[in-house]
């Protein structure tokens, strides 16, 4: 328990400057610690803010029941309550809102799908800007193979519109209810990211409302600095209201599974296949470190044939029967672990059919894989709390990072899942600075999520936070990055990226957002 | 209300239920969706606080099959309506024992089908079953609106059904209602019953858009999704199914007299069903869809029962 006297050492600083880090650099290692929510904004200026917007035709909803819908995010551990909600319907309305927010000092927290896990999309007493009001697909260009969409749209809804024209997006998170704009601000990792990169790298052009309320079109040639700051920018440098993205012809996929009992071997094969571009989709999904499954999938029969001809013999993964025999032998020699064996069997029995539901199968091909995978993710890994710390590492560090994280998982939870994917990089882009892309990654980066199966057990917030801290401490020790490092985990930003880089971005943030009103307490 | 809104507490805010929701499709206001209601209830809201959201719902059931937490989303919404109207939930879940002693089937038509006497006769002939004298329209309306159903009236309606093997209904909400009160009775949507007939199925064309009656389909998703997926593959026709294989409603299914400014607009729903699809003919399962679709498109619109007639001609 933190004694009240400790708080007296923290100096009060006015909004607009970065307060001292509430946690010293040496206080995290091995010490279970309660990470608090940011303090609630005191509401000064709120009435004038609402009044000014109302007179401009922008209506803020302030009903208690409506506001309560936004109390937390996908992680379920941060708890805030907005004073009001704006469902954004146009760039112009959002521009008016941000100008007023600067004027009255009102914090504005932006939410798309709300699938953050560290409170990044939770408003602590300010305005919640729900971008899902901007969900129209504006134009699909089958010749240029691009789509222009409002950025609050769910990836799934975008897929619906594209599918009607035989098209698909390139890569997107496995969760259907992530929003395009939110994803572009964080990265967006799919199991085809080793081949196609993250979702943010699919963006060709954006319409952005800056923190001071300018509406700007930006891309690699026009307002390119803003373009690079907003992509992978965690919502610090503007609100993405529209995006032009690459698209491709829709294809069903054929999936194969290879089983491992060694994490190291599986990771080695994952990296091999990614570097060889041997598959269209490749990732690792585990049940603890006992049943390790490498998923390998193809958009075409030709790629599938090539894989089996050139690469199958060079990876160590077993087929289902071979792996089952090995597991049977293992548990025969370790009979005291029979409960674990039964759990894995039951898990396989319930989980595997969800990857091939009849209405989404055409022979052996999966149709609308995003629906299939996302349904499975929510059904088997979803809950009112989601704890998903991760590590994002360069190729040379990845195996060690995963193994160290695995050991942490074993200490804290009887059941957990690891999910590993690669992320192809598009050269050396400014957007990768202070992002989920580790600074030392060249050509490809790798990420691993460590997700405990909370099931029906109750874990205190301290316990879950301690677990996350230990995973993140590995990142500090090894010099990796993270996919999720904001919100309640923002104490790690300086530790991982260093003062020079963080202060550089803080200076850019202060220039772009003088009132520090846009998505406060996410990064800065 | 203990037990009255069972299940909402399991909502984890994933939002998957919104993806197929017509209210979400048109409003993009999460407070008007099931997820919004569930999250608000978790945080202390009362049904009165959610009146607009509760009233907007079409009860199309698009949300229920896809909920990863297995929440009975339609059940919760019905109970919320009942709570708003002061109806005791017990009355709505009154059960009657179904007798399995007799064989036999009966058709319960909805008002739209009853109004089309020629079409109704064709359905009777095709299915070879009797039409229920009592179509229970008032009971369906009360159920949908959340009003208490008079026990005597409900009993009179249900009594002839209790001895049947199967009920076929064109009123999609009855699939849910009758299954709730006569759990042993097989309840089939009219569209499904008709399209199982070889003569009807054979008349479907790859250039057709087949509009499934959403309430019956979504209420029985586990069984209907594979059936209609196979139908689509066999016939080549397009259907009003989204990527989750949920039937997109036209919005015309709403029969209860519920005033709600946030309810989905039928023309918008129809526009979404048509979006990006090419077709030369529309075949519908619900008679109430015929008029709305004819207003919005310049191709022939047939009821599925008319397919057999077209083939035989």
Could you explain the architecture of this structure?
The complex is a heterodimer of chains A (524) and B (313). With 524 residues, chain A is an alpha+beta fold. In chain A, 35% of the residues lie in helices and 19% in strands. Chain A is built from 17 helices and 17 strands. Chain A has helices at residues 4-7, 46-55, 64-68, 91-104, 155-163, 180-186, 193-196, 224-230, 263-276, 301-310, 320-333, 338-351, 369-381, 395-412, 461-478, 491-497, 499-512; strands spanning 84-87, 108-111, 127-130, 137-141, 146-150, 167-169, 203-209, 215-219, 239-249, 253-260, 281-287, 291-298, 361-362, 365-366, 390-394, 416-424, 444-452. In chain A, strands 13-14-10-12-11-16-17-15 form an 8-stranded antiparallel beta sheet. In chain A, a hairpin with a 5-residue loop joins strand 7 (203-209) and strand 8 (215-219). In chain A, helix 2 (46-55) packs antiparallel against helix 4, helix 9 (263-276) packs antiparallel against helix 14 (395-412) and helix 14 runs antiparallel to helix 15. Chain B has 313 residues and is an alpha/beta fold. Chain B is built from 17 helices and 8 strands. Chain B has a 4-stranded parallel beta sheet with strand order 2-1-3-4. In chain B, helix 16 links the parallel strand 7 (281-284) and strand 8 (301-303). In chain B, helix 7 (117-127) packs across helix 17. The longest helix of chain B is centred in the last third of the chain and has 15 residues, at 221-235. Chain B starts with 21 loop residues before the first helix and ends with a helix. The chains are: A alpha+beta (524), B alpha/beta (313). Chain A binds chain B through residues 61, 63-66, 68-69, 71-74, 76, 87, 113-114, 130, 132-135, 152, 154, 156-157, 159-161, 163-165, 175-177, 358-360, 362, 368, 370-371, 374-375, 378-379, 382-384, and chain B through 10-16, 18-19, 28-31, 35-36, 39-40, 43-45, 49-50, 66, 68-69, 225-226, 229, 233, 242-245, 275-277.
User: Within the largest sheet of chain B, what's the order of strands?
Assistant: 2-1-3-4
- The Rg value of chain A, from CA coordinates, equals 23 Å
Largest interface: A-B, 47 and 36 residues
Low-pLDDT runs of chain A: 1-11, 17-34
CA-based gyration radius of chain B: 19 Å
- How many E-type strands of chain A? 17
What sort of overall outline of chain A do the alpha carbons produce when their principal axes are compared? Answer: globular
């Amino acid at each position: 328990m933190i004694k009240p006297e400790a708080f007296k050492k923290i100096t009060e600083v006015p909004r607009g400057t970065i307060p001292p880090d509430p946690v010293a650099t040496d206080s995290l290692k091995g010490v279970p610690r309660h990470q608090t929510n940011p303090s609630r904004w005191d509401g000064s200026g709120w009435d004038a803010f609402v009044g000014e917007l109302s007179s401009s035709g922008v209506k803020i909803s302030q009903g208690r029941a409506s506001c309560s819908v936004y109390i937390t995010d996908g992680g379920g551990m941060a708890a805030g309550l907005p004073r009001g909600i704006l469902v954004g319907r146009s760039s112009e309305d959002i521009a008016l809102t941000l100008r007023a927010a600067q004027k009255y000092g009102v914090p504005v927290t932006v939410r798309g799908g709300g699938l953050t896990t560290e409170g990044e999309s939770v408003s602590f007493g300010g305005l919640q800007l729900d971008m899902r009001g901007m969900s129209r697909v504006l134009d699909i260009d089958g010749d240029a193979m691009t789509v222009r969409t409002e950025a609050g749209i769910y990836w799934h809804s975008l897929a619906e519109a594209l599918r009607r024209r035989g098209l698909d997006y390139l890569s997107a998170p496995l969760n259907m209810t992530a929003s395009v704009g939110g994803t572009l601000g964080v990265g967006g990792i799919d199991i085809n990211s080793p081949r196609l990169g993250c979702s943010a790298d699919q963006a060709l052009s954006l319409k952005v409302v800056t923190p001071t309320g300018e509406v700007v079109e930006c891309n690699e040639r026009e307002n390119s600095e803003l373009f690079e700051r907003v992509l992978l920018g965690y919502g610090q440098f503007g609100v993405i209201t529209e995006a032009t993205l690459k698209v491709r012809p829709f294809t069903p996929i054929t999936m194969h599974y290879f089983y491992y009992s060694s994490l190291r071997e599986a990771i080695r094969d994952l990296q091999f296949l990614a570097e060889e571009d041997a598959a269209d989709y490749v990732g690792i999904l585990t049940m603890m470190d006992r049943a390790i499954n490498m998923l390998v999938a193809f958009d075409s029969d030709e790629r599938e044939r090539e894989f089996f001809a050139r690469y199958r013999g060079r990876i160590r993964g077993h087929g289902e029967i071979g792996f089952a025999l090995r597991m049977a032998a293992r548990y025969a020699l370790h009979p005291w672990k029979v409960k674990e064996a039964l759990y894995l069997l039951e898990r396989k029995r319930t989980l595997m059919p969800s990857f091939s539901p009849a209405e989404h199968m055409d022979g052996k091909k999966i149709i609308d894989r995003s629906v299939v995978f996302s349904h499975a993710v929510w059904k088997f890994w979803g809950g009112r709390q989601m704890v998903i710390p991760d590590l994002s590492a360069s190729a040379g560090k990845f195996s060690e990072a995963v193994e160290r994280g695995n050991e942490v998982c074993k200490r804290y939870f009887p059941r957990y899942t690891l999910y590993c994917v690669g992320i192809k990089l598009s050269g050396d882009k400014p957007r990768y600075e202070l992002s989920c892309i580790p600074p030392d990654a060249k050509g490809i980066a790798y990420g691993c999520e460590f997700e405990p199966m909370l099931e029906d057990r109750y874990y205190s917030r301290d316990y879950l936070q301690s677990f996350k801290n230990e995973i993140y401490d590995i990142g500090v020790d090894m010099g990796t990055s993270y996919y999720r490092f904001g919100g309640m985990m923002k104490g790690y930003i300086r530790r991982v990226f260093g003062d020079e880089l963080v202060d550089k971005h803080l200076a850019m943030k202060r220039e772009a957002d003088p009132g520090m009103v846009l998505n406060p307490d996410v990064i800065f | 209300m203990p037990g009255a809104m069972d299940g909402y507490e399991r909502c984890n805010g994933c939002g998957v239920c919104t993806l197929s929701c017509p209210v979400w499709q048109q409003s993009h206001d999460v407070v008007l969706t099931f997820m919004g209601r569930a999250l608000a209830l978790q945080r202390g809201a009362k049904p009165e606080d959610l009146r607009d959201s509760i009233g907007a719902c079409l009860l199309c059931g698009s949300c229920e099959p896809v909920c990863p937490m297995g929440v009975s989303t339609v059940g919760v919404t019905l109970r919320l309506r009942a709570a708003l109207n002061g109806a005791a939930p017990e009355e709505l879940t009154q059960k009657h024992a179904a007798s399995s002693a007799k064989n036999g089937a009966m058709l319960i038509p909805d008002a739209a089908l009853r109004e089309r006497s020629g079409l109704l006769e064709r359905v009777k002939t095709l299915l070879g079953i009797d039409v229920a004298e009592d179509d229970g329209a008032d009971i369906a309306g009360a159920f949908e609106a959340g009003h208490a159903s008079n026990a005597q009236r409900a009993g009179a309606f249900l009594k002839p059904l209790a001895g049947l093997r199967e009920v076929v209904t064109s009123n999609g909400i009855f699939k849910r209602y009758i299954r709730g009160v006569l759990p042993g009775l097989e309840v089939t949507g009219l569209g499904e019953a008709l399209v199982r007939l070889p003569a009807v199925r054979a008349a479907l064309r790859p250039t057709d858009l087949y509009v499934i009656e959403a309430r019956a389909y979504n209420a029985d998703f586990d069984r209907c999704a594979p059936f209609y997926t196979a139908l689509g593959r066999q016939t080549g026709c397009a259907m009003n199914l989204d990527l989750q294989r949920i039937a997109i409603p036209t919005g015309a299914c709403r029969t209860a007299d519920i005033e709600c400014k946030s309810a989905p607009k039928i023309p918008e729903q129809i526009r979404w069903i048509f979006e990006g699809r090419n077709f030369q003919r529309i075949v519908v399962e619900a008679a109430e869809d015929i008029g709305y679709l004819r207003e919005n498109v310049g191709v022939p619109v047939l009821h599925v029962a008319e397919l057999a007639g077209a083939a035989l001609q």
